[in-house]
Amino acid sequence: MKSLSTISGEPVNVAVALPESELKRSGNIISHIKKSIYSFSIPRLKSRLRHSPEAQRNLALFALMLAVVIFPHIAGAEDLLKSQKADANDTFGHGSTVEWVLYIAEIIVSVVGYIKTRNPMVFAGLVILILITRAFFSLAGS
């Protein structure tokens, strides 16, 4: 440990963990990098993969992700239902038969509800239901 002194030259009672001399590596930088890579990866990864199902699952997911990155045409797909978009729009879009059947069903249920309860607020609920149905079917058609 080095002792520090202030500007006035008096020693300070603070311990600082600094090395006494520079840290020198033996050998060149390439051998140091190679040694650190080998000490990090091979034995520890092998034992961890053998004994940990979570590590095996992570390795499988990583391999799948790597395969998708390397071969992106595997993950790409052609829209097989592209030709059916007009049919779905005609069936479920705004102004479709399903929309009109729902309107008729809502009216019938509201009339029956009014007959049972004699409450005119049932028809306010009918208006709200028709507006919601119209909004959702216009969204489904777009």
From TrEMBL:
Annotated membrane topology: Multi-pass membrane protein
Location within or outside the cell: Cell inner membrane; Secreted
Any coiled-coil regions, as ranges: none
Keywords in alphabetical order: Cell inner membrane, Cell membrane, Conjugation, Membrane, Plasmid, Secreted, Transmembrane, Transmembrane helix
Domain of life assignment: Bacteria
Principal location: membrane
The keyword Disulfide bond appears for this protein: no
Keyword Membrane: yes
Pfam families with a match to the protein in the record: TraA
TM region(s), chain numbering: 58-77, 97-115, 122-140
Sequence similarity: Belongs to the TraA family.
Subunit structure comment from the entry: Monomer. Interacts with itself to form filaments; also interacts with TraQ.
Protein name per Swiss-Prot or TrEMBL: Pilin
Species whose genome carries this gene: Erwinia billingiae (strain Eb661)
Designated gene of the protein: traA
